[in-house]
Amino acid sequence: MKHRRRIDVVLSPEYLDALDTHTLEELGEMRVLVDDLENQLSFYRRVLHGRMDVLRFEQRRRRGEDSRSIIEALPELLAIGNQEGNGNGNGNALDRLHADFAPELPEVERRYTSVMNDDILTRLPDLDDDDLTLALEAFGALEEKLSGQRNALHEIHDALVTEIAGRHVASDPA
């Protein structure tokens, strides 16, 4: 039997098939798995937003639109995500830039994992404008994929919660 990634199992159309045949305990376990995956994707999405904010700042700095160094702008960059809705407002803004304590995310394809592990922020001075643009495009593509998966997980979560709530209502003797 071929091993399937958890994200593939949960996002497959069969995951929600025949919910009425599952016990409440099984439905709860399914919901916990969905929540766990959503939290992982959300964390990495926030990290991506932080990195994208830094790269966009660097582009503005190079165009002469901002004269500050990255260090001088860092407090503002760390606050951008919480002010503009980059990410969902959960967690520390520092988490958006640094992933040393990131949860494991084996569900993300290898090419995207390499984007997340890239030391791009330490190489900013060595990158030309084209490399900066390519990095932003790679981050943007990954963010789009992660957002799509998160949205699908939200729909699955809602279906599971609806089924669980329906069972509780049906079993309530009042």
What does this structure look like?
The protein is mostly helical and 174 residues long. It has one domain. The protein has 5 helices and no strands. It has helices at 6-11, 24-62, 70-84, 110-117, 129-171. The longest helix has 43 residues, at 129-171. Mean pLDDT is 81; it is low at 84-101.
Helices and strands: which structural class?
mainly alpha
Distance between the termini: 47 Å
Radius of gyration: 20 Å
In round numbers, the mean pLDDT is 81
Identify the overall geometry.
Answer: elongated
Helix content: 55-70%
Q: What kind of sheet is the major sheet? A: none
Would you report the number of β strands? 0
Q: Count up the domains.
A: 1
The unreliable regions are 84-101
The tally of helices reads 5
Q: Order of helices and strands, N to C?
A: HHHHH
Percent of residues in β-strands = under 5%
Keywords for this structure?
single chain, 174 residues, mainly alpha, 0% strand, elongated
SSE map:
Blueprint (H helix, E strand, L loop, with lengths): L5 H6 L12 H39 L7 H15 L25 H8 L11 H43 L3
Helix pairs in contact: 2-3, 2-5
